[in-house]
Amino acid sequence: MNDTTGKMIYQYKTFSHDVWVAMSYDEKLSYRQLPVVFVNSLTNEQLLYNCLFWELTGDITLFNTHQEGYIHIYNSFNGLRELNKRNNVESLLLNKLQEITPSDITIDCWLKILITEMICAQENIINQYNETDTFLALQKWIYIFDEITNNKNLGYYDYSPSIRALANILLKANYNDFRPFSESAKFQNYINGTIEIDDEIISNVIDCAKNYYKLLNHK
Questions:
Q1: Which pTM does this prediction carry?
Q2: Residue 162 sits in which domain range?
């Protein structure tokens, strides 16, 4: 994720520390948008890397939930909005998701992994999956959740994107066993990004996801 070779990362105008600190947040955003001509020249993968290396991605951690942070970045950065409009971007994102191995993640790249996972976990991306892609994504997200849960050395890395992605997969499938909990006020607040996951949400989502995976795996 840290290798930018051939990725055409845009070089923004630089400012001295004092000038940058003195700017309002809106001013900073105005200087950190991708030119339309540059965006139009990028492949989906190159655009994704421009999102991952955007200077203000760390703002995702300043909110109560990662989903609130993701929505903020989406609304703030034209590159991320464009990425979500691209044709076949779900295939690229699924491939990037398949490359993630939690035990290999270091503190140097965890933020880029978090951003990648949050993009992959969104409803609009998951709803573009065909049946095969849905199965592969379901399998991978369960694997990521289990790896994080079972590895105490990954204290800085959390599984909230996994739970969000699995919840969106279950919603897409209209999985019967998940429907009662998905209709609860608590889950609606969670999926809208206003509350973070807790043990009840985790338990309901992961249990249903694993049962749904067993069902698909035996078809």
A1: 0.92
A2: 17-217
